[in-house]
């Protein structure tokens, strides 16, 4: 989790994964992410850490997830600031988030980035293109209006459910996929 607005996306993912038997979660949150967590959700870092199986410090470059020998299904950066996107796009592993993302990309595992800043400038777009060219998936959390959701919770669940579905997480009942007309 980084300093972009949308802390609820990371929190909701951890809540869903917490009840999944076959999934182990590793959390890394930036300092700006902690500020957003407090501001947006009135939540403390310690409360967030309780939702994860393992919580790592942002500067713990020796953490298990900083090595390709540590097997994972992938990584989700939710929300992702443009600063973190730029670090990932340019292989600038200056903290554990960007280092772990670099490892995921070099090991050809799934990286999903949920950018939450608009409007976009050309540098943002080029950084998204760069991450995509390296095999990452850019997934801005945008609601699907065909579901006719009338609540913020339903819209958040839809984005979170679609991302977790990419990893094979059981998201039954979280959202309704498009089935055609």
From TrEMBL:
It catalyses: dimethylallyl phosphate + FMNH2 = prenylated FMNH2 + phosphate. It is an enzyme of class 2 (transferase). InterPro entries: Flavin_trans-like, Flavoprotein, UbiX-like. Dimethylallyl phosphate binds at residues 146, 162. Residues 1-166 form the Flavoprotein domain. One of its GO terms (molecular function) is carboxy-lyase activity. Signal peptide: none annotated. NCBIfam families: PRK06029.1 (NF004685), ubiX_pad (TIGR00421). Flavin prenyltransferase that catalyzes the synthesis of the prenylated FMN cofactor (prenyl-FMN) for 4-hydroxy-3-polyprenylbenzoic acid decarboxylase UbiD. The prenyltransferase is metal-independent and links a dimethylallyl moiety from dimethylallyl monophosphate (DMAP) to the flavin N5 and C6 atoms of FMN. This is Flavin prenyltransferase UbiX. It comes from Candidatus Methylobacter favarea. The lineage of its organism: Bacteria, Pseudomonadati, Pseudomonadota, Gammaproteobacteria, Methylococcales. The gene is ubiX.
